[in-house]
């Protein structure tokens, strides 16, 4: 025997073992639990200490001073050890013998009132010598009350000798004073003879409750001996016999012995039986089923995994379970029961009232069998867990009843495992019938079911994001969801935000969830195949922490020409100091003085505008004089009114102001007289902002002419904007009025562009002051108008799907004594609507950084006289450059570069607040409202709009709505250095937005662009 010095370094290793995981000891008042598993204690077998004690190192382990300053006061006394785990410590036969001898002596002498209860010696190569030591220890320690002994993964036949280790252990169990309740001897090489020895002990033992003998190859002989012993045993509760070749004999005598024992009077306590990986086959299963069918069978958990059971055996077992009222868990994993067996079990579920766990993994169940199980689930009220991993529910048919009937209607299921079943996105057409996708059925089932806690759908081919939507819902009960190894490509941002709440739930009102999306080709979240629970949680935490309140939004002011849109914009943006100026702006054109007309003429934007201003000043023209300058000249072939200059205007232009185009000037004057107000110049214009406290609302005034609707539909399509439709009070209830039905028309127009958020549509009544001025109105005209307005408002609100949420239309009364009340009502209503629109609108702070980046890019484009257009790749380059200049910027900003969905959401937000517009597939138009108002006014022909006189060629007068390339270049000369270089890009943009179409074929169109560019 090798000798070690008293202070051998191994002593430090052993002492250190006591300090693992915080000192290796779990303390009570006077008791500790020692776990030194995995530490090398082989030195104990070779040590010969100077103090003459072969147990020096073991004594050293348990001394209080080596347990990190423990609470036991007497250092000369061994601590009271309740449990000891020395598995995988390389003890060997001698080390095991010395340890058990030491424990028996010290435990008996020092702590008779606190005996060691549990000992684990797994995988220590104890051999037959160590096995006999275990038997001797169990015999001697019976007085001390050892309750659990685990010697698994030790070959106790190795080394031989008599008596055998199994016989020694069995003799210990025969003692009446035995207190052992649990004996674990898996893979101990017992064989038939060892099992027979234990069977003799089992017949007389009155303490053992759990016996684990898996992997001992006891065969039919050993099995029959154990089962016969069960007839005399009245204490055993759990028996593990996995991998023992039970049932291997042709007559199944061992299985018959088991069946007899299960229905006997004495074997009433055994509730758990593990017979997995044996040779029962169908005949053995049939024999066992007869016992299960009896009312006296005590089994509550039966494991029959990998027993070569086919459909006949499954059918017999299903029939037995129809009447059984005791069995709670049945494991048939790895048996080829097929669809026939599954159908039988499905029928059993309808009538069984005890089963809570059913494991049918790897049972060759196809679509038909899965549907049958689903129908059984629908009518079962006790099953809590079903496992169907590695079957083929998605193959051989398209019946989705397992989910659409079973999971959807079951009210008790808590765990569902159905990985590796070939469930794909869709089944397409089967037998001429179109079937819904598995994804849809699963999503609907998960949305409806309210009891599921654990769901495993991994290793299928599912790609439907609605499955994740259903699981992520705050109403979902799911706590663990494995969706790994599928074909999921993206999860919506809304669902990601819900997941952030579920994965990081800290309140009792939100159910936490662990989600695994790894091995999916995810682009959003941009984690690829690495979206396991930890990575998902970290990413979603970043996403959730970015959320900020919406601080700006657009209000689109809509209505036909002459309803008061510009007046509304001026009213709500006017300061207190501007009150008098605003009131004066309401003066009718006929009452305008020279100053107001000068301001109007200066806005014409023509080459002769300055001379028009000079004419008004020098000739002292007022509003009353305008009818003297322009007169009606009949109509054209299309019925449109034609106005021509009067003789007075012709004489003035020819004699004193020759630069003025008298025909164009006459049309502008006629438009002003007809409308009675200063109309919007261009398709749209920004009219400032409304301060709503912590938020701002930017105003966009849309021209009301029908010709402009082609551009309006582009700017109004965002569901994140507010829209206000204005209709004059005198038009309600009067079908002959030109503005009759405006609310109805515009609400339908907006509805055609897509769904709108709740509260995003407002209806307003203008020109209330004109009700009393109608010479044909009776005294009740105001009341009648309000009645008709209320009726129409109720009708439109009823079909708006929540887009209109306010109780009444806004009344726009700008009289001096009502102005303050009107503005207060407007702001209060806008604040309420903004709250509703932004309630579930996620806006990360990083998006405002992108807005700043875009504005810088726009300024650079403007300084270079380039179109304000960026491709998405160019935007990403700008973002990348910004991140490099600002390394401490938002972490999410860097994620946007790799997450296409996050980028698209950023673009959606920037569109909503008016910073950009998505043009074609890749282009982004910066400041679209400003660009359209400046650009489209050149080309949309409207004889009543002042702005159209800027481009008024003969070809446009002849061909209404058409324009040639030369006109475009001519109009853009003042904006771009070389507009001909941008003509292809401009026309591609306009055609991509469907604002216009080329009259030539694509080849002719492209050729004309190239020729024009080269010629120009």
Strand content: 5-15%
SS content category: alpha/beta
* Biggest beta-sheet profile: 17 strands, mixed
Unreliable runs, pLDDT <50, ≥5 residues? 1-29, 63-78, 428-435, 636-640, 680-684, 941-960, 1009-1016
Oligomer: single chain
The average pLDDT value, as a whole number, equals 80
N-to-C span: 105 Å
The best one-word shape is elongated
**Rg, alpha carbons:** 44 Å
The tally of helices reads 37
- Please provide the count of β strands: 32
Question: Share of helix among residues?
Answer: 40-55%
Structural overview:
- This protein has 1016 residues and is α/β, with parallel strands linked by helices.
- Helices cover 41% and strands 12% of the residues.
- The strands form 6 sheets. It has a 17-stranded mixed beta sheet. It has a 6-stranded mixed beta sheet with strand order 24-25-21-26-27-28, sandwiched between helices. Strands 30-32-31 form a 3-stranded antiparallel beta sheet.
- Helix 12 links the parallel strand 11 (329-331) and strand 12.
Question: Secondary-structure blueprint of this entry?
Answer:
Blueprint: H1 9-17, H2 20-23, E1 25-27, E2 31-35, H3 56-62, E3 80-85, H4 92-110, E4 118-120, H5 127-140, E5 148-150, H6 165-174, E6 182-184, H7 191-204, E7 210-212, H8 219-230, E8 238-240, H9 253-262, E9 272-274, H10 281-293, E10 301-303, H11 311-323, E11 329-331, H12 338-351, E12 357-359, H13 367-378, E13 385-387, H14 401-409, E14 415-417, E15 429-430, E16 433-434, H15 438-448, E17 454-456, H16 465-472, E18 480-482, H17 493-503, E19 514-516, H18 533-545, E20 547-548, E21 552-558, H19 565-573, H20 579-585, H21 594-602, H22 609-618, E22 630-635, E23 641-645, H23 647-655, H24 662-675, E24 684-691, E25 696-702, H25 709-715, E26 722-728, H26 742-752, E27 761-766, H27 781-798, E28 810-811, H28 819-838, E29 843-844, H29 845-863, E30 869-871, H30 872-885, H31 891-896, H32 900-912, E31 916-919, E32 923-926, H33 928-935, H34 954-958, H35 965-971, H36 979-992, H37 1002-1015
Parallel strand pairs: 2-3, 3-4, 4-5, 5-6, 6-7, 7-8, 8-9, 9-10, 10-11, 11-12, 12-13, 13-14, 14-17, 17-18, 18-19, 21-25, 21-26, 26-27, 27-28
Antiparallel strand pairs: 1-2, 15-16, 20-29, 22-23, 24-25, 30-32, 31-32
């Amino acid at each position: 025997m090798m000798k070690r010095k008293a202070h051998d370094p191994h002593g430090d290793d052993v002492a250190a073992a006591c300090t693992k995981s915080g000192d290796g000891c779990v303390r009570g008042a006077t008791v500790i639990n020692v776990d030194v598993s995995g530490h090398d204690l082989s030195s104990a077998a070779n040590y010969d200490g100077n103090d003459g004690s072969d147990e020096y190192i073991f004594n050293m382990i348990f001394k209080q001073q080596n347990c990190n300053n423990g609470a036991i006061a007497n250092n000369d006394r061994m601590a009271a050890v309740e449990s000891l785990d020395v598995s995988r410590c390389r003890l060997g036969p001698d080390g095991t013998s010395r340890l058990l001898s030491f424990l028996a002596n010290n435990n008996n002498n020092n702590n008779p009132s606190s005996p060691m209860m549990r000992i684990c010696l797994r995988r220590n190569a104890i051999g037959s010598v160590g096995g006999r030591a275990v038997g001797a220890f169990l015999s001697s320690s019976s007085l001390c009350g050892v309750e659990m002994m685990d010697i698994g993964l030790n070959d106790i036949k190795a080394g031989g000798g008599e008596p055998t280790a199994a016989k020694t252990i069995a003799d210990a169990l025969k003692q009446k004073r035995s207190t052992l309740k649990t004996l674990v001897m898996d893979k101990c090489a017992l064989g038939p003879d060892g099992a027979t020895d234990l069977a003799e002990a089992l017949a007389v033992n009155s303490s053992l409750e759990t016996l684990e003998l898996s992997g001992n190859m006891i065969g039919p002989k050993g099995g029959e001996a154990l089962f016969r012993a069960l007839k005399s045993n009245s204490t055993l509760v759990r028996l593990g016999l996995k991998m023992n070749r039970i049932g291997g004999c042709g007559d199944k005598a061992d299985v018959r012995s088991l069946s007899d024992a299960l229905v006997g009077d004495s074997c009433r306590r055994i509730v758990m039986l593990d017979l997995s990986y044996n040779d029962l086959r169908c005949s053995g299963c049939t024999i066992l089923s007869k016992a299960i069918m009896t009312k006296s069978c005590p089994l509550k958990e039966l494991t029959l995994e990998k027993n070569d059971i086919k459909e006949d055996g499954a059918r017999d077992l299903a029939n037995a379970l129809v009447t059984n009222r005791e069995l709670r868990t049945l494991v048939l994993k790895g048996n080829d029961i097929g669809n026939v067996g599954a159908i039988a079990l499905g029928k059993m579920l309808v009538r069984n009232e005890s089963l809570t766990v059913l494991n049918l993994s790897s049972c060759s169940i196809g679509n038909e069998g899965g549907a049958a199980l689903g129908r059984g689930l629908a009518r079962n009220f006790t099953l809590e867990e079903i496992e169907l991993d590695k079957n083929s529910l998605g193959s051989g048919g398209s019946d989705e009843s397992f989910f659409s009937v079973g999971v959807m209607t079951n009210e008790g299921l808590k765990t569902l495992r159905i990985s590796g079943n070939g469930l794909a996105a869709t089944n397409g057409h089967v037998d001429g019938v179109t079937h819904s996708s598995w994804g849809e059925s699963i999503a609907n089932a998960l949305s409806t079911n309210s009891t599921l806690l654990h769901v495993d759908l991994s290793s299928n081919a599912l790609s439907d994001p609605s499955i994740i939507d259903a699981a992520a819902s705050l109403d979902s009960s799911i706590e663990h969801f494995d969706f790994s190894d599928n074909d999921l490509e993206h999860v919506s941002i809304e669902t990601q935000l819900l997941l952030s709440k579920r994965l990081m739930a800290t309140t009792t009102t939100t159910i936490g969830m662990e989600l695994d999306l790894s091995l999916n080709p995810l682009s959003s979240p941009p984690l690829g195949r690495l979206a396991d629970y930890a990575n998902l949680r970290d990413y979603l935490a970043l996403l959730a922490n970015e959320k900020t309140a919406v601080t700006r939004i657009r209000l689109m002011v809509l209505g036909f020409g002459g309803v008061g849109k510009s007046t509304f914009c001026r009213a709500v943006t006017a300061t207190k100091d501007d009150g008098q100026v605003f009131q004066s702006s309401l003066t009718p054109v006929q009452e305008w003085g020279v100053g107001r007309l000068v301001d109007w003429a200066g806005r014409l934007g023509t080459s002769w505008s300055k001379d028009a201003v000079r004419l008004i000043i020098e000739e002292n023209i007022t509003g009353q004089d305008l009818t003297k300058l322009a007169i009606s000249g009949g109509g054209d072939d299309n019925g449109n009114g034609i106005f021509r200059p009067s003789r007075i205007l012709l004489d003035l232009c020819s004699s004193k102001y020759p630069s003025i185009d008298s025909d164009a000037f006459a049309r502008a004057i006629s438009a002003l007289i007809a409308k009675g107000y200063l109309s919007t110049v261009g398709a749209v214009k920004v009219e400032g902002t409304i301060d709503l406290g912590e938020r701002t609302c930017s105003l966009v005034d849309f021209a009301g002419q029908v010709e402009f609707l082609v551009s309006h539909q582009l700017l109004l399509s965002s569901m994140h904007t507010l829209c206000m439709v204005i209709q004059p009070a005198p038009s309600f209830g009067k079908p002959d009025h030109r503005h009759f039905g405006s609310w109805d028309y515009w609400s339908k127009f907006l509805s055609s562009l897509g769904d709108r958020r709740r509260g995003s549509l407002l209806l307003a009544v203008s020109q209330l002051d004109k009700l009393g001025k109608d010479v044909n109105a009776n005294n009740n005209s105001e009341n009648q108008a309000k009645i008709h307005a209320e009726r129409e408002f109720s009708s439109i609100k009823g079909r708006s799907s929540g887009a209109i949420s306010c109780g009444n239309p806004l009344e726009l009364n700008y009289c001096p004594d009502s102005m303050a009340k009107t503005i207060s009502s407007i702001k209060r209503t806008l604040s309420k609507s903004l709250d509703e629109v932004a309630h579930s609108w996620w806006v990360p702070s990083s998006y405002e950084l992108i807005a700043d980046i875009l504005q810088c890019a726009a300024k650079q484009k403007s300084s270079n006289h380039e179109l304000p257009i960026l491709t998405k790749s160019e935007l990403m380059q700008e973002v990348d450059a910004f991140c490099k200049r600002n390394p401490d910027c938002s972490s999410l900003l860097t994620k946007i570069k790799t997450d296409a969905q996050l980028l698209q959401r950023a673009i959606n937000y920037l569109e909503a607040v008016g910073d950009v517009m998505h043009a074609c597939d890749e282009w982004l138009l910066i400041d679209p409202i400003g660009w359209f108002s400046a650009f489209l006014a050149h080309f949309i022909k409207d004889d009543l709009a002042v702005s159209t006189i800027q481009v008024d060629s003969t070809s446009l007068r002849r061909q209404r709505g058409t324009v040639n390339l030369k006109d475009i270049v001519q109009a853009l000369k003042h904006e771009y250095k070389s507009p001909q270089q941008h003509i292809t890009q401009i026309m591609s943009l306009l055609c991509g937005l469907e604002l216009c179409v080329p009259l030539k074929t694509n080849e002719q169109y492209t050729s004309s662009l190239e020729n024009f560019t080269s010629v120009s």
